[in-house]
Amino acid sequence: MPKYILFDANIIIELYKLGVWGHLISRVEVIVPATVARDEAFFYSNTEGGIPSPINLPELIKTGAIKEAIATVEEMAALENVFDTVFIKGLDAGEAEAIALLYSGSIGEPKFCTADKAAIQALAMISRRDLCISMELILRDCGLQQNVDSQFKEAFLKQWLDKGSQNLITGFGLNPKKLLF
User: Fold this and answer.
1) Cα–Cα distances in Å, from 166 out to 121, 178, 181?
2) pTM score, two decimals?
C-alpha cells in the first residue's frame, strides 16, 4: 500500500458507495486536488439530505483527516504546454490539477487513483505511468476485496496507460512545439 495517494473525485465517490472510504482515510494519507475538494466531489444523498459527511471534503481538510493540494498558475501553464488543446480540454479540471501537481513534483510522488481514460493516458504521456494505481489494487492491498466495475480494475488502468505510452511515442495529443523528435 502506498504511503499517500492523490484521489480523483470519481474514486472518492465510488469508495464511499462501497462503504470503504472511512477505512481508507484511516490507513493512508489522502491528498485531493483543491478543484476536486471544492468543485467536483459533491455527491448528493437524498437519504442524508445533502453531501454525506464522510465525503464532505472541505470539512475533512479542515479537520486534518485528509490533505488538499493546490496547483499554482505556473504548474497549470506548464501542463497545458505539454498537451495539445484538444487533449487538455478532455481532462476535467480536478484531473488536470492533479496531473499538473504530479508533473511539477511539488507534492512529491504520491500514487494517483482515477478511473478516467484521458487522465490515465496523460500520466503515461508525461512519462509518469509509475504514479498510477487502480482502485482495485488499493482495495486489495487494504484487504478490502470488493467486486468493482471494470473502470476501477487493474486491467482498465493498464489498457489506458499503454494507450498513453503509445500516444507519447507517436506524439498524439502532445503539443507539437514540445515534441523532441
Assistant:
1) 9, 17, 14
2) 0.90
**E strands within 120-172?**
none
CATH number at residue 74: 3.40.50.1010
Name the residue range of residue 100's domain: 4-178
Contact 44, 50 (CB under 8 A): yes
Q: How many structural domains are present in the chain?
A: 1
pLDDT tens profile 35-62: 999 886 665 555 555 566 778 899 999 9
Instruction: Of 15, 6, 12, give the one whose Cα is nearest residue 139.
Output: 15
pLDDT tens column, 136-171 = 999 999 888 889 999 999 999 999 999 999 999 999
> Do residues 43 and 18 touch, judged by C-beta distance below 8 A?
no
- Within 10 Å of residue 40's Cβ, how many Cβ atoms? 20
